[in-house]
Amino acid sequence: MQIMDGKKVAAEIKDEIAREVDQIKNSGGKIPHLAAILVGNDPPSETYVAGKVRVCEEVGFKSTLVRFTDDISEERLIEAVRDLNKNPDVDGFIVQLPLPEHISEPNIIESIDPHKDVDGFHPVNIGRMVLGLPSFVSATPAGIIELIRRYDIPTAGRSCLVIGRSNIVGRPLSNLLSLKRYPGNATVTLAHSKTTNLPGLILESDIIIAALGSPEFITGEMIKEGAVVIDVGITRVKSDFTKSGYKLIGDVKFDEVAPKCSFITPVPGGVGPMTIISLLRNTLLASKSKRFG
Question: Of 23, 58, 161, 284, whose CB has the highest number of CB atoms within 10 Å?
Fold first, then answer.
């Protein structure tokens, strides 16, 4: 069994990005610039955006944080998005989700210039991704694909079960793993809350990607010997053994499942660190070319 160390891989990629930014700087090129729009003061969003700003500084990117109170109108938010679309110094930007209930997330996402949509949520980027064309891929699926690549995990012809059909993780990942390239060429099943005999499907699969949000749902008896297990889930639960009084656990019962796996990601330290680093890679790509291809 080998643990897929997302923290280690993310650090390696961060160093690669920082070196490339140094080369750009030394040659007099434009420094990549990532902007973020944050509406309201949702604590997880605050933490996530702060992490993005910090990592931008560490690799030498410019970063801008645009804040609005949660009573902003949809029209004013779209205006702010269009301002960033037109700003030639901003290479890519994100609108941190979730948004207040009175704002339509699809309307905001569709107002973003696809060539600055480094979150990979715009329909143009999703469509290009499905067709296997150059595009921005959303950060978590992109991070998982990179983990698979860096650990040289075979995917061609393998049975792959993606559990969870969100537009942010499950759906794009199922498409990426079925594309005619590596990592890809897998036989992919997309399972969800209405799937019957889910434990049976898990037991038959060579690669399992769990994005349910259901703590320790997958147990040892559900996994066949030699399976690859990638745990996307993350839930905070009470713990008497940590200073904070809480711990983070995934969708997989790690201690039971890990001994049966060929590869497995831990929680925390697996998929999570790859997410922000994938956003930085998209921003670097955006800074080098305003058009795909």
Answer: 161
